[in-house]
Amino acid sequence: MTDPGVIYLRRLADRVADLPHATLVDAVEDVKAVANAAGGSFTRARPGHAYPLRAHDRIVDRGTESFARIQGVPVGFWSILTYGSTEHRIPLGASAGRSRARRNAKGRRLLGFQGGTGAAYGPVVHHGATGRGTWDRVVANATPLVLDRFADNVDRVVIS
Amino acid sequence: MTDKKIQMDLTLRDQASKPLEKIADTADDLTADPIELEATADVERAADDLTRVDRIADDVDALHPTVDVDTNAAKAADELAGLGPGAQHGAAAAGQALRELGGPIGDVVDKAQTLNEAVAGAMAGIGVAPGALSALAGPIAGVSIAVAGLAAVWSKVRQGQEEARQRARDYADAIDEAGGALEKAARNRLGESLSDDDVRLLDRYHLTMLDVADAMQGHVTPALAELRRNFPDGAELARAAGAGSPELQQLAEDVARIDDLISGEAGGLARGNELWQARNRVMGDAVDQADDLTKALDRTRDALDVEQEALDLKTAVASALDSAGESADQSTQDVLDLKKEIVAAAELAKVSPVELQSTIDKVSAGDLAGAAADAQAWLNRHPVSIITQLAGVKVSGSTNINLSGAGGTGRAGVTNVVVNMPRGMRYDAAAARAMNRYARRNGGRVLRRQ
Prior knowledge:
The complex is a heterodimer of chains A (160) and B (450). Chain A has four helices and ten strands. Chain A is α+β, with helices and mostly antiparallel strands and 160 residues long.
């Protein structure tokens, strides 16, 4: 009969070995909740359409090490919110996947009106935006939650 | 350049499970190996007892040079040389038996004395200093390690006791053999001392020369007592015979002759008598010595029995606390069992009735933590030196009791489980990890995977 103390030590070692993965599973949920709350929806890309800003996660175990990456999606809108944007043209309509001619088609910006030639239109240019550091705030707000989650899990594993 | 990735990376690395597994393996080996952890003082006492017994043996040997064959075997043989070939052979056999005596007893004593060194080696093997093991284990395995340690000590000491008893039996046999040789020599000497007429005389009255020898020592054998009942006094018998019948006169002469033999006036029996006395002395000392050894071993065993009892009691108290604290709704039976265990602990630790009643009141009031602390304090006050920690008690709220630590783990059985998995699952890492985890949690180490 194996000694109960030895069994307990083995259980403890087992729980400690599972701790990284289990903690990351909990931690990414915390981070994603923070990201959902901070991101909200991106509505300015297409008026009338709301793009919720969320986060996806991927957890990989390598031996005794567990690695988690939380990726904000859609990356572009997160990036605009976080870091801002430079001046850029706003393509006409849904230009993704369309031809270059379509993507470079002149927009609806009225460049001028001259008698005889009529109205001249050019591309609509966005003047750029200042980043608000949204994702940075997500990271800043989620970090203490992750640390607390880790501490709680360690306590639960060691004390229980 | 600022990293503009919309990502958050988390990395956790486990560096503790491997050392814990190593500690568990070492503890497993430690419990499997009969090595003492805590009861060193009692083993030393056993060693002291054995050493004392050995010293007694030396003293006895010193008192009787004929037994101390290491120094005086040749001399004893010379002294017995004149007693005939049979006596010489017996003395030589006894000398050889006693010559081999010192080694085995010395081995037993050495084995007991070096048990402490084995403890130090075990501690070095686990990588912690003595005393630090409990601190390291803390709430992890305080009770169980102590249990395992004492169980290991118990088997070791029992084994030592059996060996020591065997040595004692060998020792007694050797001394018996020596006594037998002396007895044979004494018998031969007595036989040589008696004339043929005397031998016939004794045979006529169903007496032997041993009856005469015992009578010389003041011991009346049954045959001699029967003769005394029939013929109280040879001289009186002779006077009564007077000029009576020749048969009566012959009887009176026979009785008088027997009296002469017993009183030593017949001569020739003096040396046989001395030899007989030496034989009795050696035999008596051998019996006393064997008794001393047996008593010492029994005393050691009794001490360890007390420790075992104390340890069982501590485990029972922890178990009762565990049972009572597993649920917020403590059943009356659980509380009653706990009270019984506490009373038993108080009895063992000789706690005053007032103190006991105070603790019982704590249990009744639901203060299991306080009761556990009291019981732990009693058992710590007990003279036996067992480092045992009762289960750590965490009290949340007024009635919910959560027990944690070693006492709460219980003794899990080992179960062999054969899992037949689908072919596609055989190399599935998650399934294999789950199987391994199940095996480890149930006391197994390695689960064979196909």
